[in-house]
């Protein structure tokens, strides 16, 4: 049943993004930024962790989880290290994912050549 809920919740997040494109006529950058901020706000309110427990990958794969990771890391490190942790916590939590994205993008650029 967890797969069904992951599909439904992940799909709903994607539907919200698509509606932002179609109805609100937002650019991809505005849509992505809005979804990141929504994930950050949901984490600050304490609602994103229950959503992750309920939907699993349906809540951790979409872009909203990046906002969640930023706020979650900052708040966790704030409790541990004080105000310096607000900055270091962001990098601590997101560095592996960002590093992986950079490395895999570089490797893909070596293999795939654009046409034109």
From TrEMBL:
Transmembrane parts of this sequence: 6-24, 83-112
InterPro entries: Spore_V_AE (IPR014204), SpoVA (IPR005562)
Pfam families (alphabetical): SpoVAC_SpoVAEB (PF03862)
Keywords: Membrane, Transmembrane, Transmembrane helix
Coiled-coil residues: none
Taxonomic superkingdom: Bacteria
UniProt KW Nucleus keyword: no
Keyword Chloroplast: no
Name of the protein: Stage V sporulation protein AE
Organism, as annotated: Paenibacillus anaericanus
